[in-house]
Amino acid sequence: MQSKTRMIGRDGPSFIEVARRAQIVECAIETIASLGYAQASLNQIAERAGISKSVISYHFAGKDELIDQVLEDVSAAGAALMWPRVQAEETSAGMLRAYIQSHMDFMRTHPRHVAAVSEILLHNRTQFDDGQATPLEERLREGQRDGEFRAFSPRVMAWSIRAALDEVARRFVANPGLGLDDCARELTTLFDLATNRSAAAETQVAHDRSRDCP
Amino acid sequence: MQSKTRMIGRDGPSFIEVARRAQIVECAIETIASLGYAQASLNQIAERAGISKSVISYHFAGKDELIDQVLEDVSAAGAALMWPRVQAEETSAGMLRAYIQSHMDFMRTHPRHVAAVSEILLHNRTQFDDGQATPLEERLREGQRDGEFRAFSPRVMAWSIRAALDEVARRFVANPGLGLDDCARELTTLFDLATNRSAAAETQVAHDRSRDCP
Amino acid sequence: MQSKTRMIGRDGPSFIEVARRAQIVECAIETIASLGYAQASLNQIAERAGISKSVISYHFAGKDELIDQVLEDVSAAGAALMWPRVQAEETSAGMLRAYIQSHMDFMRTHPRHVAAVSEILLHNRTQFDDGQATPLEERLREGQRDGEFRAFSPRVMAWSIRAALDEVARRFVANPGLGLDDCARELTTLFDLATNRSAAAETQVAHDRSRDCP
Amino acid sequence: MQSKTRMIGRDGPSFIEVARRAQIVECAIETIASLGYAQASLNQIAERAGISKSVISYHFAGKDELIDQVLEDVSAAGAALMWPRVQAEETSAGMLRAYIQSHMDFMRTHPRHVAAVSEILLHNRTQFDDGQATPLEERLREGQRDGEFRAFSPRVMAWSIRAALDEVARRFVANPGLGLDDCARELTTLFDLATNRSAAAETQVAHDRSRDCP
DNA sequence: GATGAATGAGTCTTCATTCAT
DNA sequence: TATGAATGAAGACTCATTCAT
Question: In terms of Cα–Cα distance, which of B64, B54, B60 is closest to B4?
Fold first, then answer.
């Protein structure tokens, strides 16, 4: 709808309005995941939706609003799936595993959603707010305070985790035959080893030994 | 394209041809790193090079060939810096550390090159050759055969390593104040722990214990 | 168009029909005066009216009819205010003064109406009916026949008067602080001098003198 | 030319560049004068020029620059024609007559130019710099200081003069049969009478008389 | 009567590419 | 070799209009 005065009345957006927006958002996701962010023009999106290009302009103020809606919808859905499972864990290591595992599960059920968001975030790196910590980073930091995680930079670790997950997401979209279960197991183990205290200690010993007698 | 016609002459590309192509590639790198892939039009590149836009079309079959050349040149430069240092190591763990470390060193000395390639790969993720193993993956596999690395999927591990390195690269470009030394140390430790055999064993024990008495 | 169909009923347009049309016309005036003709889309007009855009299409055959109605309504209102005062004058000079003065008064009481019409005429200067004389022109001609006005082209004089009034209207809309009383006095004097017989004679003398001994 | 770096070297714009720009500016004038500002799209302009729409984008940074160029070119041409003739006059009244007369002469030789500028100025009334005095206003004020002109608001008078001239310009474009000589004579007389001191005095007398015995 | 929804034509702009010189 | 000039396709966006409900 073009007017921004969108009924201050009681009803809010109509059913069909909601449905259309959802459909367009879905098609945008589909398109971005398939063609990449750069190739995902309104034309392409409209074509996939089987609608005229201007229908998008009717339901969204502009491409930006559409993209924002994609981010919002997918993030909300992802968070709804993931955080309960993360919070249900008692240990920090468990939480990290749950984070990765649920991320992969979400990816399995919504592969193109994850890929699309990944594409969007990668291309809109304006808001690279290096200043602010992500929830994941916070959780890692907490795990360190608890003494469960070894000493590492939570920021770099969070970057690495997200980068690995996003990479898998894109690979999965390009190649749906990819075994997500295997990937999940690999990544949980990888970052388990990378974060837990005892492994670090042991490796430190190994390092020391290797330095002692080269 | 014209260059092919030129190639059939007896002496290959002339000196000036080579120089021009190199100059253009450099300017392309500069432009992409500065403005991002999307804003790096031939116009912008030509402007930075102080040449006419059509010079690019003259020396390259099209924008695609230019971009490919950028990838090729930077990859070659990177490989030339990195692989000697990697090969000089005797242990697989050392090689992995050298891989990460030299990658960061290359990033420090050629930040814009790395940024440009990163941008390009991000936008042209069409050709996801999942079939073929990268050199890094091969090295990881070798480390497993040697018994130095634990059992993991070399492919997923390679993906994770590259993803982490590229992420740091992008962060570094966006924020040159980023401490590359710290990142290098973080990542080498991270993937050291993630790959080495003893850490895995120890962690496995820890896991078992945690399963025994929850 | 639908309204024609409706008209063939026995009682003409219903009360609600008339009211709606009037409301829409008012909002159109408001919008055009505020945003300018170019920015006054049906969307904007409907928004200000608090109605749906298609209501306009329902009550008017198209934007053109709406615009025509605006012109008609404002002209009628203006004429209703002005002509009685003009006709009340006995001399032609008095009539001209009354014309200008009442025009400015109308401008003061209906600034946005005048501005809207001004905008519309500016953008739709297709139908320049140069053939037909305006009422103002007729009055000027009459003043000449009475011997009260000097000899001049009533057409060009009428153009000049209207142009000056419209110019002041636009200035007033752009800058409501403009002193309309001052403008009214200036313009009445200006065109008084420009039309009256005695001033012309005197000036003619001056001209002749200046030609005699340059 | 798209690049803004336009050769800092010695040559400046090439001959063909200058010619093309001039041609496009002429066609823009033609189009605006014929269709009105609102209908003068780049498409229309390009069509009249017999060139592709993007040629305009090549030679001008955007529509704005084209419009600005139109204003600049026409203003320069007009000023070059008018001001020498205006300055050549010794009396203020002579200058005003020369201003109007030369304006009409320019209109005769460049009718569409004048009409186009008039259209542009009317539509871009953003810069309605009511604060700043135009050269014409300054001249009028000077004439008052000299004691040659009666007391009037130079601003309102300048508005009226320009409005009348622009009105005639538009009428002339719409109807080329219009007798410009007659118009020129009419307007010079009109504003002569409206400004000169003696006419005002005489009229004042008439006014007084009419007030005495109405 | 009224309206949300949809649409196609049209706006300006950017860009890679081609061509004659 | 080099380049100024030109072009067509595609980009996002606006808008008056139409239609089913």
Answer: B60
